[in-house]
Amino acid sequence: MFITIKNIGDAQVMHLLFIVYSEFYTALTLLCLCII
C-alpha cells in the first residue's frame, strides 16, 4: 500500500477535523444535559 505526501496531508487534516468535531459534539452534549 503506497502512501503519497498528499494522502498523508489529507489524513492529518481529516484527523484534525475529526478531533474538532468530537470536541464540539461532546461540548454540545454536555450543554444539552445541563439545560435538561
Note poorly predicted spans.
Answer: none
Profile the largest sheet.
Answer: none
Helix content: over 70%
Rounded Rg: 15 Å
The 3D shape can be described as rod-shaped
Total E-strand runs? 0
Structural class: mainly alpha
Percentage beta strand: under 5%
SSE run: H
Alpha carbon gap, first and last residue: 49 Å
Average pLDDT for all residues: 84
Number of helices: 1
Keywords: Membrane, Transmembrane, Transmembrane helix
Transmembrane segments: 12-35
Structural account:
With 36 residues, the chain is an all-alpha fold. 86% of the residues lie in helices and 0% in strands. The protein is built from one helix and no strands.
Topology:
Layout: H1 5-35
Keywords: Membrane, Transmembrane, Transmembrane helix
Transmembrane segments: 12-35
Keywords:
single chain; mainly alpha; 86% helix
Outline of the structure:
The protein is mainly α. The protein contains one helix and no strands.
